[in-house]
Design goal:
Elements: H1 8-12, H2 14-22, E1 27-32, E2 38-43, H3 46-53, E3 58-59, H4 77-80, H5 90-101, H6 104-123, E4 130-132, H7 133-138, H8 140-150, H9 157-166, H10 173-196, H11 202-208, E5 210-211, E6 214-215, H12 218-248, H13 251-259, H14 263-274, E7 284-286, E8 290-292, E9 295-297, E10 302-305, H15 307-310, H16 345-362, E11 367-368, E12 390-392
Helix pairs in contact: 6-8, 6-16, 8-9, 8-12, 9-10, 10-12, 12-14, 12-16
Length: 393
């Protein structure tokens, strides 16, 4: 069938498309692109998505599938050959080393900074005025936090944030490629500085981390620094924007968030499930033929796992299109599943909790400034996020 993921209606509401595809089969063969005829397989069922996330026959090492295909792109290897595009045993080794530095304790130590940054952003908003949740809060917060963790000097953060934003410039390949080189060069220089002038930053921890005689190489350090910066940026921005919109559209839920201590901590999983910031996970490729959800998948084809679709599978979640803060949604797939589950999930949660709690308690009369149907969604299949979210304070 033709690619339904290019339909403008998909970007406005992917869940209707996912439901239609799932109603015929939880794993569906699609023809991607405009007339290219290249097949791929989209997974929309919850059980099938969980299986696919841990199936070793689905490889993340995209380079092996494009080794004989010349590329017109000029992405820096720090981005194109990162930990996100590796399989075991290389992935196991890198993840083990990074996890030693990127701990839950490190995230907890960042909470005062996160709260302070959120308060500083909201202090600039005039009660009774207007703000854009995306531009004024959801975009700057995650970049500021990861810059603080990595030890990026304050004077450099505006430029680093601009490069990070350019990496997600949909439809602008030259801009994306240039930003990848600029960020990689900058991070290489910053690593050299941290090596000569040790501090307490996450970047210095990564420089120092060892597992016996094993440690990160220079190219691995640069790649991890870049990926830590950009990977959490997009996801957390979309999480804050999508969750805010969901709460604005259900005032009773927003009122509970303000009135009941602790409701957000449990309810955040439901907000993540309802409108996942990652609609489709980064690509995998089949290394051999397999059968999943009753569908035969040949070797050597792209396989797209859709957390956004799986989170709305009615066989797993009753009334999946409804926000229910009392629902047990801890099994959602918005952060992935298995060995590639998002390493920065605790940090994303901490940032979203701080932003949402401060936003709805400080501005109890918060309302959308435009009708919901007029909001613009980003035209990307992988991520689910708003271009802007204007609100009346």
């Amino acid at each position: 069938m033709n690619d339904p993921l290019q339909d403008p209606d998909f970007f406005r509401n992917p869940y209707a498309t996912y439901a239609r595809l799932r109603s015929t089969a939880p794993v569906k063969r699609l023809t991607t692109g405009s007339g290219s005829g290249r097949p791929s397989y989209l997974i929309t069922g919850y059980r099938e998505a969980r299986e696919a996330f841990v199936d070793p026959r689905l490889s993340k090492n995209t380079a092996r599938f494009f080794a004989d295909q010349p590329s017109r792109r000029d992405l820096h290897p720090a981005v194109s050959q990162s930990i996100l595009a590796t399989d075991p045993p290389e992935h196991t080794r890198l993840r083990r080393l990074v996890a030693r530095a990127f701990t839950t304790g490190a995230v907890e130590r960042m909470r005062p900074y996160i709260d302070e940054f959120v308060d500083g952003q909201l202090d600039a908003w005039a009660p009774g005025g207007q703000a854009d949740i995306v531009a004024d809060l959801a975009v700057p917060l995650p970049v500021a936090v990861i810059c603080q963790m990595l030890g990026v000097p304050e004077a450099d953060r505006t430029q680093v944030r601009a490069w990070s934003s350019d990496l997600f410039a949909a439809g602008q390949p030259q801009q994306i490629d240039a930003a990848s080189h600029a960020l990689a060069y900058y991070m290489g220089e910053l690593i050299a500085t941290k090596r000569d002038q040790p501090d307490t930053s996450l970047l210095h921890d990564l420089i120092a981390v060892r597992d016996g005689t094993d440690q990160l190489s220079e190219s691995e350090l640069v790649s991890l620094a870049v990926i830590l910066l950009v990977a959490g940026h997009e996801t957390t921005t979309n999480l804050i924007g999508n969750a805010t919109l969901a709460l604005l559209q259900q005032p009773d839920a927003a009122a509970r968030l303000r009135a009941e201590t602790g409701v957000l901590q449990a309810g955040l999983d439901e907000l993540l499930r309802l409108d996942s910031p990652a609609s489709i996970a980064t690509f995998r490729y089949s290394t051999e033929a397999l059968t999943l959800g009753g569908t035969q998948i040949p070797a050597g084809v792209p396989v797209l796992i859709a957390p956004g679709a799986a989170n709305h599978d009615p066989t797993q979640y009753a009334d999946p299109d409804q926000l229910d803060l009392d629902r047990d949604s801890r099994g959602h797939l918005s952060f992935g599943h298995g060995i590639h589950r998002c390493l920065g999930a605790p940090l994303a949660r901490a940032e979203a909790e701080s932003a949402l709690l401060a936003l709805f308690t400080r501005f109890p009369a918060l309302r959308l400034a435009v009708p919901a149907q007029e909001l613009q969604w980003r035209h990307t299949r992988l991520m689910r996020g708003l271009v802007a979210l204007p609100v009346n304070l």
